[in-house]
UniProtKB/TrEMBL annotation:
Classification via PANTHER family: SRR1-LIKE PROTEIN
Name recorded for this polypeptide: SRR1L protein
GO CC entries: cytoplasm; nucleus
Limits of the SRR1-like domain: 10-172
InterPro entries xref list: SRR1-like, SRR1L
Cleavable signal peptide: none
Family under the similarity heading: Belongs to the SRR1 family.
Length: 208
């Protein structure tokens, strides 16, 4: 909670969006991630009704369980393209595919919007280290362009939950760092299509 609260300051997020939680009815790792999300909402004083989730893998029973916990379900597969509409928003995206992060950045591609985002998900620094620069710039250009405008802190590790939160960081985008980027960075706002991507880690709309 401390790692997440640091970039938020005294102001709690207005809402939370969770992508890619997975089959928590079957998977212990997904159950731990759900438990952490619920504890985090409580710690940050975000009402469950202000937390929306989507995973095309959810069963009807899992969806009913989430509603019983007071959480909301997004009605359709947004492919991560969720605009924050001016409200400080926490995105909980543990172990999601790179395209989801890239799409989220594209949907909020301005200093004003990005400065209101906090992302709990795969380390952007780790993505940069593991991916060839030409692939990163071609397929995930918004991640590549924001690397100099993001701050990230790894979630504290715990020996019991190494597989649950490995490679997971808290990311935020300080306004002064974003404004220091070249103006040309903000001029290119073409929607990501991933036509040449060989390893697309995302379920597209209509493929559920």
């Amino acid at each position: 909670a401390g790692a997440v609260r640091a970039p938020l300051g005294a102001e709690p997020p207005a809402r939370c969006v969770c992508y890619g939680l997975g089959r928590f009815g079957r998977c212990p790792i997904a159950r731990c991630q759900l438990a952490f999300l619920l504890l985090l909402l409580d710690e940050l004083r975000v009402p469950p009704a202000r937390c929306a989730l989507f995973d095309p893998a959810f069963s009807a029973r899992e969806a009913a369980a989430l509603r019983a916990l007071g959480l909301c379900l997004l009605p359709e597969n947004e492919e991560g393209k969720h605009g924050i509409e001016g409200a400080t928003t926490l995105f909980y995206m543990v172990h999601c595919g790179k395209a989801l992060y890239n799409n989220l950045l594209w949907s909020n591609w301005s200093p004003a919007a990005l400065s209101k985002l906090v992302i709990i998900g795969n380390s952007f620094q780790g993505i940069e280290e593991r991916l060839l620069s030409r692939i990163l710039e071609r397929d995930y250009s918004y991640i590549a362009k924001v690397l100099k405008g993001v701050e990230e802190v790894a979630l504290p590790s715990h020996p019991r939950y190494l597989d649950t939160f490995n490679d997971t960081s808290v990311h935020w985008f300080p306004l002064d760092k974003l404004q220091a980027l070249s103006p040309e960075v903000w001029d290119f706002v073409e929607e990501p299509m991933y036509q040449d991507c060989e390893d697309l880690e995302i379920i597209r709309r209509g493929e559920e």
